[in-house]
Amino acid sequence: MARERVISAERQNRDNDAVNFALRPTRLDDITGQQQVVEQLRIAIEAARKRSEPLEHILLDGPPGLGKTTLAHVIATELNSRAPKITSGPALTKTSDLMSVLTNLEKGEVLFIDEVHRLPKIVEEFLYPVMEDFRVDYTIEGGLGGRTISFALQQFTLIGATTRAGLLSAAIRDRFGMRYHFDFYDEKDLTTILERSAGLLEISASKDALRAIASRSRGTPRVANRLLRRVRDYAQVRADGEVTIDIVHDGLEIQRIDRLGLDDLDRTYLTSLIEVYGGGPAGIEALAATTGQERDTLEDVVEPYLLQLGFVIRTRQGRQATEHAYKHLNVPFKARTPADDQADLFS
Ligand SMILES: Nc1ncnc2c1ncn2[C@@H]1O[C@H](COP(=O)(O)OP(=O)(O)O)[C@@H](O)[C@H]1O
Ligand SMILES: [Mg+2]
Asked: What is the distance, to the nearest Å, from the Cα of residue 21 to the centroid of all Cα atoms in its chain?
């Protein structure tokens, strides 16, 4: 398995789940950022409650660590003060797995399916009538082609989350009545989230120290909270526990995280794009080979933030480093010439 990255937006084994849980907002009012999503949901929840109807199914999409699971919990709490039932695409390998989940749902409950893009096709198709009519069409094997029984379920709300909306079929996407896209957070919102976390964890930190952590958090609350904990460790071991801006700089330098939040893997990616492929365009498979990483790792956890920073662009021919990337790495920029394009045709 690849080494765990401090700045990875993915949930990690080393993460202290109890701490993460404690840092999770539990009500819509506690959520920082994503204000449009929050406002629309507030209205939809209120309306559903007034009509005593279930809330429409909701699809949440966006990069890892931005609060999709958190929001699913918040919605369930706001709707009926209960935790959602939780499962995931890869956990539902056959229709019977989903059957047992569905038949146990009570009226108005929330079912959360994480990584919906990884539902097996057969399970996904089984979900269509469930989402539309709260009806199950279940085939019992045996005899000549088996027998289909159909029965009604309690009305519930399905919340699906995905980091790869592009991989969802239109058929399932269209069955979600509400769809919300999560975007990276700005530094101001991340600083607010860090202030709240520092308060909950009883960490004494200056505002500019928290802002310095926010600017290295890749727009991602999960990363921000993790960096805060690493910096707290450093402050306790190397100083008096107070998180100052110097402590942030030194503590994160030890973790080899630079001032934009890039780590060794990001820099290796950029360096190979620039030095091995002359700045690109280079194919993702070629980059995976030269960096020694899985293609999925590069696409899921390295490229989104480099694209967001404008360090890399995607062209039809492949990935290309921009002048910003050269500058950040202190490498003199050499723009591509028409001759380079010609040379590519024959190389
Ligand atoms: N809007 C937010 N405000 C405050 N904290 C947040 C917010 N979104 C996410 N977090 C924090 O980030 C962590 C990761 O969020 P999570 O919901 O697990 O992300 P996702 O499901 O999108 O990967 C949570 O533990 C929570 O503490
Ligand atoms: Mg999640």
From this structure: 16
Task: Give the CATH H-level superfamily of domain 34-181.
Answer: P-loop containing nucleotide triphosphate hydrolases (3.40.50.300)
pLDDT tens readout for residues 199-241: 999 999 999 999 999 999 999 999 999 999 999 999 999 989 8
First to last CA, the chain: 35
Catalytic residues: 68-69, 114, 163, 222
pTM for the complete prediction? Answer: 0.87
**Cα(87) to centroid of ligand 2, in Å?**
11
CA distance 165 to 9: 17
* Helical ranges in 241-293 per DSSP H: 245-254, 264-271, 284-291
- Using a 6 Å cutoff on CB, does residue 217 contact ligand 1? no
**Averaged pLDDT for residues 307-319:** 94
Asked whether the predicted pLDDT for residue 3 surpasses 60, the reply is no
Question: Topology of 264-346 in CATH?
Answer: Arc Repressor Mutant, subunit A (1.10.10)
Whole-angstrom CA distances from 217 to 12, 286, 327 are: 16, 28, 20
Which atom of ligand 1 lies closest to the CA of 72?
A: 17
pLDDT at 346: 64
Choose the residue to mutate in 10, 21, 24 for probing ligand 1, maximizing ligand atoms within 8 Å of C-beta.
24
Q: What is the DSSP string of 280-300?
A: --B-HHHHHHHHT--HHHIII
